[in-house]
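Render this sequence as a predicted structure.
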Amino acid sequence: MTILFRRILLVITIANAIALCACSTRPQITRTQELSASADAPYKNILVITLFSSFDSRRYLEEEVVSNLSELGINAVASTSLMDTRTPVVRETFMKMVSDIDADAVLLTQLVSLSSVGKVVDMNPQSTVNLRPTGYWNVFSVEMTEYVEPQAVDFKHSLVLKTDLFSVASEDTVWGIESRSKLKSGFDQGRDYTVFVNEARAIASSLSGDGLIAH
């Protein structure tokens, strides 16, 4: 398994930070590698690895991928379920995981790019109006108070993830895709978990559609 885990180690060294937030759309999938002739598919026991700098983001996506694969009858294990934030993200760690769960494939997702554009927007003003009668017929005194909220910043994000499937037996990459998503978020909004759900569903669906898993 030396070649396989050297490749994984190389990916680890170039993995970038990601904080997935926003209102996401369904990812667009592009095949980066069609099913290899060396593939011993279908696979039944898969180690799922995500490489982001944030442990929580890795865990969220891995758990969603595992959930989707489990629904298809596949035994899948999230790498983050076998480690914590102090566990070294190195080749030996994943080698031991593959051995411990007797995996026949490794599904590896990494960040390719994340670009963001922010725009300052004005918020809707709120106002109250007080009418008071005067000493004249049909004449009123008008007092209006306007409350203007602070400006906000809206962001548009373009996210690209790359997912590769490695065969443990052949120690080779046997399949790969890129998923592209358009996201929107406000500056002060929290993370929207649906981006993890959508990405995981797209990955599992692509694996199933290309005949890489047995179910």
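Summary. The domain at 2-119+157-209 is CATH 3.40.50.800 (Rossmann fold). The radius of gyration is 25 Å.
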